[in-house]
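If you are new to this repository, start here. Below is one unmodified record pulled from the training split, so you can see the exact layout before writing a loader.
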Amino acid sequence: MLACTPRGVEVPVPTPVPVALEVKDTPPAELLACTTAPDGFPADAEAQMPTSVRAAAIRLAQAFRARGEQLVRLIRWHDPEACR
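And here is the target side for that same chain:
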């Protein structure tokens, strides 16, 4: 027991050994697959919607586009020629 040793006596402690692990920084293949954009609204159809609903649809479309662009940038970070 450490508390029972006389003062001035050093107890041997094993020297810590550094550990290095190889890290794979390539994401899984399903995350690197290029996606296809869905079809938009039909050009020959007409609809009337309130201004607030139209504004929400525009915000959703812009967010969808931004997320898609972000995903393509991530994929191209791993493979610069992907999603062309």
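Two things worth knowing about this chain: The radius of gyration is 29 Å. The mean pLDDT is 83.
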